[in-house]
UniProtKB/TrEMBL annotation:
The keyword Signal does not apply. It is a multi-pass membrane protein. It comes from the Eukaryota. Coiled coil: none annotated. SUPFAM superfamilies: Aquaporin-like (SSF81338). One of its GO terms (cellular component) is plasma membrane. Its main location: membrane. Belongs to the MIP/aquaporin (TC 1.A.8) family. This is Uncharacterized protein. The keyword Protease does not apply. It is found in: Membrane.
Amino acid sequence: MGELGTKLGLDELAGGAASISKALLAEFIGNLLLNLFGCGACINITQGSTAAPDIVLISLAFGLAVFAAVSAIGHVSGGHINPAVTAGMAATGRVKPVRAVLYVIAQCAGAAAGSGLLKAFTPDRAAGSLGVTGPGTDVTLPQAFGIEFFLGFVLVFVVCGVCDPNKPDSKATAPLAIGLTVTLGHLLAVDYTGSAMNPARSFGSALVANIWDSHWVYWVGPVCGGVAAALLYVHGFSAPAQETPRYKPVAGDEKELKRLDGKTEDLA
């Protein structure tokens, strides 16, 4: 395989098909759970489709869904669960282009499956638009784009920070930090744009409900914000590499110390 194929990531398909298949399945399931549980919180079974959205409930549902999914599949695929995150990782070279494209396809398919299950489980009188995202009252498209840009920005900025290879101590809390960032974004933006933060999440809802109004905002905004955040973090805020000690004790050193300790005791 040529150098170009290696740069694009074709070698991953040839040499690690089983590994990338598991990663794609993980991304599919992660987005399925996100749309099923997150968008499910947008539906009010008791009061029907005319009920006002409970912003706190929706925010917590999406944040907890991301926390759960990243905790479960992070070791398999990296736990992107979002084309904006994948785009940011691809822009900084952490994910090769072919893998990035396959991730986005799997994410969109999973989100569509999650929204499809939600529609199947929900009474027609309460289903409404199944959590389709759209600009709020009097919110213009440029304003909606700006909100979604910064939703993608803050999410990927935090992802880069907690997944920095030179900050190993932060990896244990990464799923919680990412989930809380999603909650933060929704607390701000549900009334502005529906707070997508995630193009696949919006795609799944729009596909099942067949509502595509202003859909481009929910791709261009988060992806541009995610790429900007990833480039800014990698080139401006990456943690410095940890220095490796020049001398490392080996088993022979410990034996020698024990031998000397024994001689010291004899002399005493």
